Amino acid sequence: MNTQSRLEKILASGELAVTSECGPPRGARPEKVKEKSALLKDHVDGINVTDNQTAMVRMSSFAAAVIIKQMGLDPIMQMVARDRNRLAMQSDIIGAYAFGINTMLCLSGDHAKFGDHPMAKGVFDIDSVQMINMVRRMRDDETFQGGAKIDGAPKMFIGAAANPFADPFELRVMRLAKKIKAGVDFIQTQCIFNLDKFEEWMKGVTDRGLDKKVHILAGITPMKSVGMARYMKNKVPGMDIPDTVIKRLEGVSKQQQPEEGIKMAVESIERIKQIKGVHGFHIMAIEWEEKVPQIVEQAGLYPRPKV
Amino acid sequence: MITAEQKPMQEIIQYIAPYSKILLVGCNECVTVCAAGGRKEVGLLASALHLNHLKQGKTIDIKEITLERQCDPEYVEELAPYIDGVDAVVSMACGCGVQTVAGRYKKSPVFPAVNTRFMGASLGQGVWAERCKGCGDCVLGITGGICPVARCSKHLFNGPCGGTSNGQCEIGPETDCAWRLIWERLKELGMEDRYEDLMNAKDWRPGGAAGPGKIIREDLA
Lengths: 307, 221
Known about the structure:
The complex is a heterodimer of chains A (about 300) and B (about 220). With about 300 residues, chain A is of the alpha/beta class. Chain A is about 40% helix and about 15% strand. Chain B is an alpha/beta fold and about 220 residues long.
């Protein structure tokens, strides 16, 4: 065990882990963070706190993670390479760890073009793979990226994302291998709707034995409506939504679509549980956090183990 | 080459509004090749400015001259005989040329008539695309001849982000994913295994992080 992370303890115990996420508010409203997190608290092992997701300014992931930590819960602080150089990253990592935040996720970040500040200059001083390596060295070698010793090294359990559905597909297992080489501990995947393709990717992962070196949490998103499914298919970069998903939602009345979406999410979890090398689930219920407990319960992932 | 595009007419007109005698200076190098500030564009801009003044019932005296290289003091010296006879200089060179002229003729206001865009290459008639960021530590030797600094929208060094769709960058279908191109090229060269080499965090000092760049060649200076 490298850290005090609850997620690390769950994964080390061999149980399937469950994480979910909380998008911080677009304003100084700590109660919003508390409300969302309270909905998740008994049903997950960690709560991802997004970092200016889709390049829209929000309360910082660091601040929102502190609020969640102070509720006695387990935040997973996301950090994107878009908004910080290596100095800012390292100081925030130390700061977060000083508040007891021990789990984080290293990401490139959506391009600023998608957000409400498209005129902003993206930083991209280091990339997500280099960020993983920097955080690992801060933990294991107790050194800053620049080489100096850290007095009070942050012991982070290090996560990253993987998108098995983006192009070029044949590179996606190699990209995971690279993140493992850099020192990643766990992976949360992009939302899985094309299960056949996910199985193919996982086969590539297990064929190389990579599942023995990293914990993979499968990304699950319940569809609220057919409109949401169409939007994700056409507008969200790197998303793979098969037509069968859209047809199935079209096949029920508008009022029944949310329930159908949840049913589909639970079915996906049941099928993915059978895939070798999957060690848990990351449930991203976008602005629909109140449904996470229902999904976790129906998928047989409740109660959460005590560690 | 360094690419540039002409500024909006209104901006150029505003710059020169207080003046009646203008020296309009083009450059025979990059801006000629990208059709932004060579002899031809100097002529066209001069005509447009004349026309604009005529419409307003005014006249303007414009002396046109195109230098061999506006970023070179030797050629910029050629403006000396004309400079005292004008109120202002309008340069159609890139930012390097504008500053060389402004540095030499300190009493004359010098205005840019083009926006300098990027270091790029020609893709065909009338199309130029960015190819180099001048990062000062070239990685093309290990990325199959395709630059991730200039051509990946996030300057990623270790492979494509999750936003690639149909081989294109997440910022839009008109931009190829640089890492898709790098991967295809590495495959063509039989160098796929090189992809898994970790590329360490870049030292940005040679590319400007250490302050404005300067090269001093002792053997030539």
